[in-house]
């Protein structure tokens, strides 16, 4: 351990609280301090290079050294480092970005409300749904349905939407009016022999039964990631959204698409909504909106919801919502440049070109003894690590196979992310076929490591 690492690790342990980390662990021995990046690679304070197989947090779509984004930030910070959108003030970058976003967004989305993070974008989506139904004179129509294993953030409302019990435990979540529906994972929840279509039909029936049991007049919206990311990369079964949307329509329930991971090419189309035929009333985006170079998110809303907001403003004298950094000009300038690059370099076309190779390498892992399932779409995927392939018995959590797998790959220069029993892959969208091979060669080696070091114990 050299002096720099010693110093970083010691100072970090003394000062920082790490999100999504076990705070009881000794940070000093585990710390990975990233100091620079280039293309799909990052480098730590020891000079070790890693292929970033997770694009940071599913997000640095253009990799780690896009000069144009640095230049856009530089130019804007020199011209106007900050201004806001309150009280009818505006900035050119936020106008340009809103215009650009709406020009590529799914049909029916007509206005943009900016924020800073995915959590905030979803949080304000919830508030807007409540606001909308109050304006419509149906104050009882307030429940938001999320799905188990869905991930929507960590604020009080978005953390409630998140369908992972660990995000609720001892945080006193979920809050009132947020309920959860079935997780659409065929691998985890289909009956033996049940086809994807039959499973999708059963999920839809169960959703309808839940809505009826709650009282359709009390259910306002359903929020869904086209593909759930942090919940373990759950790709919905065939026909799922078609069936779900029919039910939502029947009971006058809004659809919120959380495109925080799937937005901007990840699934092989500009938005996951296009891939899965979703027609959202509200769509949230963040992460790849700026390739994560600066924090910015947005909630896109339909004209009908916007009109209700206008009426509420008339009634109260103000739309009393907004955050200091909404549409921050430097973040907006970087996001706008990001969207221009997507277009100019046909990033969606690139994903469509390399994704079959990514998915083929991923699918090939399904034959490995410790892989219960390999799933994905576009440039996102996951494998499910199991102790026993036939019974699908997981490894005992105490054995820590996921973290050990992740660490093994890290030692071999590849970053992936263990999520419970799944290991996720979500590289920068600029990844090449050769780099996809580097990623999956390391994963293959990691599976050899699991087979070697972890016996078939299941308890
Ligand atoms: N929604 C989805 C689908 C996400 O994956 C995430 C974060 O991973 C969020 C929302 C929350 O975004 P943030 O961490 O920027 O608050």
Automatic annotation (TrEMBL):
Needed cofactors? pyridoxal 5'-phosphate
- Write out the GO MF terms: transaminase activity
Question: PANTHER family in the record, alphabetically?
Answer: ADENOSYLMETHIONINE-8-AMINO-7-OXONONANOATE AMINOTRANSFERASE
Which InterPro entries does the entry link to?
Answer: Aminotrans_3, Aminotrans_3_PPA_site, PyrdxlP-dep_Trfase, PyrdxlP-dep_Trfase_major, PyrdxlP-dep_Trfase_small
For this UniProt record, the keywords arranged alphabetically read as follows: Aminotransferase, Pyridoxal phosphate, Transferase
Protein family according to the UniProt entry: Belongs to the class-III pyridoxal-phosphate-dependent aminotransferase family.
**What lineage does the source organism belong to?**
Bacteria, Pseudomonadati, Pseudomonadota, Alphaproteobacteria, Rhodobacterales
Report the protein name in the record: Aspartate aminotransferase family protein
Highest taxon listed in the record's lineage? Bacteria
- Whose protein is this, by species? Seohaeicola nanhaiensis
